[in-house]
Amino acid sequence: MSEQELGITESKSHSIGDWYADARGRAMGVYVGSFSVGTGLAFLLATPLATRVGWRSAVAATSLGAAVAGPALVAVTRAPPATGTDVDTEDGGVRALLGNRRYRHAVTAYAGHNWEMFAIRNWITALLLATPVLALRPNGAAIAGVLAGVLMLAGGLGNLLGGWASDRLGRGRTVALAVGGSGLITVGLGLLETVRVPLAGLAVLVVVYGALLTADSAPVSTAVTEVVADEQVGLALSLQSVAGFLVTVVSPVAFGAALDVGGFRLAFPVLAVGAAVGVAAALALGRASAAESADVGESSAVDVSDD
Questions:
Q1: Which of 81, 165, 170, 300 has the highest CB neighbour number within 10 Å of its CB?
Q2: Domain containing residue 61: CATH number
Q3: Residue 195, domain extent
Q4: Phi, psi of 203 (to 5 degrees)
Q5: DSSP letter string over 84-109?
Q6: Is residue 14 domain-resident?
Q7: pLDDT digits over 161-192, tens only?
C-alpha cells in the first residue's frame, strides 16, 4: 500500500520551532516540560484526595484538566510566522524519514529515554514506600505520593534546563549527559530498599533525579525538528511518539518481571539499559550532525571557489 493510500502526505506542518527558531531548545523545553508539571501536579492533588475520599474522586479531579485543554488550545493558538526554510527532498514520507540517519539516532535516543522514564514513573512510589524511612511511618503512603509528584514536577525544570543547555552545547551532547546522569542514579536506586537515607536526603535525590530524567526530552524533540525537512516535521514527530511510547508498554512489565526475580536491586538496572541505549544514540547523533555540518561547509567552500 502506498503512502498516499495510507493518507500520508507531504503537507507543511507547524511545530514549536516555527515560532522560536532562534531559541528552539528553550521553547521546546517549556512545551515538553508542561507535561511533567501537569503530571506532578496530578500526583500532588491525587495523593491527599485518595487518602481522604478514595481513588475514584482523585481520578475524577485529575481528569478535569483534559476537559479544558482543547478549548484553551483553540483560544490561544495562532499561525506561526513563515520560516522560509522549506527543504526539498527527492522522496518524502516514511521512507525518507527512515533513511535519515540523524533522525533514526534521535528516535532511538528518545525510545531509550522513555524505556527508563516511564517505568520509573510507574514504580517510583512503590520503591519510596519500601525505603526504611517511610516503610514504618503511618503516613508513609501519603509522603511517597507527594515525593513522586515532586519528582515529576522537577521534570518541568529539567526540560527547561535541558532545552537551554542544548542551545549552547548541542543536542546530542546534552542528551548524552542527561541520560547518562539519570542512568547512573537508576542503577543505584535499588539500594534505597535497604540503605537508610534520611527523609531530607531522599527529597533532594528525588528533585535531582526528576530533573535529570527529563532533561533530554526537549533536546531530542528539538533535534527531530531540525534534522528533517520542514514539510516532514509533523510526520517525524508522530513517528517519534509511536516508537517512544511503544517501549513504555514493555519496560514497566520488564521491571516487574525483574522485581519478582531479584527485587529492586535487579529491576532498576534493567531500566538503566534504556539509558545506555539513549547515550549511545545521542553520541551517534552528535557525530552524525558534526559530519553533516562539515560536509555542508566543504560544499559551500567549493561553491565559493567555483565562483
A1: 165
A2: 1.20.1250.20
A3: 24-71+92-296
A4: -65, -40
A5: ------SS-HHHHHHT-HHHHHHHHH
A6: no
A7: 888 888 888 889 999 999 999 999 999 999 99
